[in-house]
Amino acid sequence: MAPHTEQLTRPAVRLKALTRSFDGRTVLDGVDLEIPAGQFVALLGHSGSGKSTLLRAVAGLDHEVEGSGELIAPERVSVVFQDSRLLPWTRVLDNVLLGTDGKEAAAKGRAALAEVGLAGRERSWPGELSGGEAQRAALARSLVREPELLLADEPFGALDALTRIRMHGLLRELWERHRPSVLLVTHDVNEAIVLADRVLVLEKGRIGLDLTIDRPHPRSSGDPRLGEYRERLLAALGVTEDLK
Amino acid sequence: MATTTTTTSTAPAPTAAPPGAPDARRRRRSLSPGRRLPASRLIGPALLLVLWASASAAGRLDPGAVPAPWTVLETAGRLWTDGTLPTDVLTSLRRAAAGFAIGLTAGVVLALVSGLSRVGEALIDGSVQLNRAIPTLGLIPLFILWLGIGETFKIAIIAIVVYIPIYLNTHAALSGIDHRFVELAEVQGLSRLRFVRQIVIPGALPGFFVGLRLGVTGSWLGLVVLEQINATSGLGYLMFQAQNYGQSDVILVGLLVYGVFGLVSDSAVRLIERRVLSWRRTLSS
User: Fold this and answer.
1) Where is the ABC transporter domain (chain A) (predicted)?
2) DSSP string spanning B200-239?
3) Which of A24, A71, A150, B142 keeps 20 to 30 A from B214, CA to CA?
């Protein structure tokens, strides 16, 4: 299926019968999922379908949530949130370096900023960045840690359409270069099929559809061959053709 | 409700600008107060000073009640050269500085302990709120009984006046730290120490500075009261004595010095605040 089969042998993430509930309302109802190392996965679902709950569980951020099941995730996990979540009182480079240390940390931070196109902005304050630039800095911060797994919770949701397209290219490019496993939570079907090699639909607390998208990159959302994937995903999400 | 709609059709179209005038589109009227006047803070006080001086020169003020500005300056010079004023100023400064330093330390330490641990909060926060409800100057009789009428009780009262606003504002800022940043710290694998250093403390600094400015003002307030009721030295004592002898110029000298103290210390805190919170300028500008 994907061109990098040799990297896909050991699973990076394994969920078995994962359940999570809030105040007795079951949000995840026995999710089984394996993500091979280095795979780019998108997770679709309605708002309230539990996408973020799943991501937060994998990130280990659900401290006071009831639940059971087996969860294996790699040691080095990075999270990109919908908001850039840069510390406003810390300059961009130090934001990127948050939580890392070592002698080469600063050099790595600079390299990561250069990679996302923010070279020269190391000494800026986050308040001086545009929304797109702030999100690039957040990507750089996640890269510096050399993650085995990159979790992204609607990372482009707050950006304008043009910036979003540019960020899609950047994310895919960074993935090609660093090859972390990616779990991208989104509600945007086009974003999912343009970026990911595998798209999951979360439905009623379980994985309702698991679709491998076997098209070469870079993809354009106008590609007619992607149309059938889009239709199947929309159908799984309960959106029929005449409703669009 | 449909009756009012008929009037709009008769109004001329506001966008019909002549074709030769591209800039004809009107800017909206600005509702902000506009640009600051240069040195705007000084204009009001300067005007008052001019009024005072001219009224004195014209002989419209009773010199026994309100002496002329130059009389006040002369008295200040005399008191300074004969050594009374420097001694009293030093005494007052020492009291204020000691009380302020103790209050600042106590406020910050208590706020950190109470803001960072639930046990600390349970032990400290309620007690401080209780302490706040008692007017600190009302503690003076009790403190005199406990600590005697010397320096210790004065410093203790000033410290209490200072620590309360610093504690309250710092604690509020600590507990108001954005939960999203806590989550970020967890994701980035920050240790507790680094979390406090890189997120909690910088995040609480704006609140701390609000408390600091209130504390500085409070320390002078406490000083004035303490020196006027139970002192044998200091600026307040000087003024108290002057009252007995009807020397209004000496009282004004004392007030002038207090004013300078207050202004200088407040400006100093503001300067430090601007330096430390320089990242905020990018947001407010």
Assistant:
1) 13-229
2) IHHHHHHHHHHHHHHHHHHHHHHHHHHHHHS-SSSHHHHH
3) B142
Q: Are B222 and B136 in contact (CB under 8 A)?
A: yes
Which is more confident, A237 or A5? A237
Mean pLDDT to the nearest integer, B54-79: 91
Residue with tokens 């200072």: B162
Cα A169–chain centre separation? 14
- As a whole number, the mean pLDDT across chain A is 88
Question: Chain A residues with CB inside 8 Å of B205's CB?
Answer: 89
Task: Report the C-alpha gap between A194 and A172 in whole angstroms.
Answer: 9
> Are A85 and B181 inside 8 Å of each other by CB?
yes
CA distances (Å), B124 to each of A48, A221, B53, B106, B137, in order?
A: 40, 59, 52, 12, 21
How far, in Å, CA of B157 to CA of B96, rounded?
Answer: 10
Mean of the per-residue pLDDT values for chain B? 86
- Is the CB of B184 less than 8 angstroms away from the CB of A85? yes
Section B161-170 average pLDDT? 96
Chosen for mutation from A98, A124, A139, A151 (greatest number of chain B CBs closer than 10 Å) is A98
CA–CA separation, A217 and A175 (whole Å): 12
Q: Residue A8 pLDDT > 80, yes or no? A: no
ipTM: 0.87
Domain limits for position A65: 1-76+148-155+183-244
What local confidence, expressed as pLDDT, does residue A240 receive? 67
pLDDT attached to residue A158 = 86
A100 occurs within a structural domain: no
**Per residue in B144-158, pLDDT tens?**
999 988 889 999 999
Topology of domain B72-280, CATH: MetI-like fold (1.10.3720)
Q: Which residues contact A155 (CB under 8 A, 6 or more apart)?
A: A80, A81, A82, A135, A138, A139, A167, A171, A184
A161 lies in a domain? no
Q: Cβ contacts of residue B132 below 8 Å, gap of 6+?
A: B164, B168
Q: What CATH number did the domain enclosing A205 receive?
A: 3.40.50.300
pLDDT of res. A5: 45
Residue A142 falls within a domain, yes or no? no
| Number of domains chain A is built from | 1
Q: Give the confidence band of B65 by pLDDT, cuts at 50, 70, 90.
A: confident
Asked if A127's CB is within 8 angstroms of B277's CB, the reply is: no
Q: Please report residues of A whose CB lies closer than 8 A to that of B199.
A: 87
Selected for mutation to probe chain B from A61, A83, A87 (highest B CB count within 10 Å) is A87
Confidence of residue B29 (pLDDT cuts 50, 70, 90): confident
